[in-house]
Structure formats: structure tokens, C-alpha cells
Amino acid sequence: MTKVLVLYYSSYGHIEKLADAIAEGARAGGAEVDIRRVKETAPPEIVAAAHFKTDTAHPEIEGPDALAQYDAIVVGAPTRYGRMPSQMAAYWDTTGGLWMKGALIGKVGGAFTSTASQHGGQETTLFSIITNLLHHGMTIVGLDYGHSGLQGVDTVQGGTPYGASTIADGDGSRQPSDVELEGARYQGKRIAETAAKLK
Fold first, then answer.
1. What angle (nearest 5°) sits at the alpha carbon of residue 13, between those of residues 134 and 7?
2. Does residue 155 register a pLDDT over 90?
3. Neighbours of 50 (CB within 10 A)
4. C-alpha–C-alpha distance, residues 77 and 118, integer Å
5. Rg for the chain (alpha carbons), in Å?
6. How far is CA 121 from the centre of its chain?
7. Average of pLDDT values for 73-84?
8. 79-114 pLDDT tens trace
């Protein structure tokens, strides 16, 4: 069975919800799925002052070597000034040993994100994630236009060809919509199906 890892960092729970939807889609695509989060590296006083969401059902990933056991890895993180946050970057900075061995070459990768506003850097954040995956030799699967939710401008919605996304609003009050969650499921399924074909 194809093994998929959904690896994420979430400050306020929006990315965590998308991670669950990505995983749901990957399971629908026939994969065995693990959901893991990266370590929180912000000082405890910052976490408390910013009211980060600290309760989660998903355990931390144990270390970089864990990545090698998966056929596909889907990485999710919110945007920080148009790029992935330091928590996720710090994790990928530990994967040099895997890169040296070519341990992730030929595996499937994908990315998903969230921003506060419609023009808050979703695509640049996705590319900041995808760049790491490409350097590891992974084959990238985005959110293609088979997902009809990428069309239309009647409502505020995330979603790009480069990966699923959501818009949280400046105060984090907007939760992922049904269309955005469906996009995440669609991408997760496509990633699982592609990994199965390449395995």
C-alpha cells in the first residue's frame, strides 16, 4: 500500500484542518496516511501572547529520517511574509543527510497553505515549500483544474494550481470553507494516486 505523510505546521488551526482534509483525500486514493506536525520553535511567551493553538491530535514528527519511509509527502504551513514560517524551514534544514543520500528522489510531493488575506502570499509560500521538495528530487503534484473550486470569483476562496489553500482573515476568524476543504481532499487524492502509479 502507498504510504503518504501529511506534514504540517499550524499556528491557529487552519492548516491543521487542511491537513486533515488532505489526509482524507489521500485515504480515498487508496493510501495509508500519517499526519505529523513539526516542532514549535517560537518561545513559550510568544506562543502564549499570540494565542497559538497548542492542542492537537497529531504527534510531532520524530526526525528527518522518518521522511524516507513514505512514498509521498504533502507539506502544509501558513505564510510568514510570503514564505513558509521558520518552524517548517527549521525542520527542512535538518534534512541534509537525506539529500546527500538521495533518499527522497522519485517520491511525490505537494504543498498547501493559508494566508490572512487574498493577496497575502499564498503562491510564494507554496513555492517556498515546493522548492525544498524539488531540491530533494521529488515529483510535485499541485491542485489542478479538475477541482472546479478553482474557477469563479463569486466568493472569497483560496486554492491555487500550486496547492490547496485557505484564507483566514486578519484575526483568524474565517475557517476553511467547504470548497477549500474539497480542494485539499482533491489534491490529497491526486497525490496518493500519482504515488501509487510511480511506486
1. 30
2. no
3. 10
4. 16
5. 16
6. 15
7. 97
8. 999 999 999 999 999 999 999 999 999 999 999 999
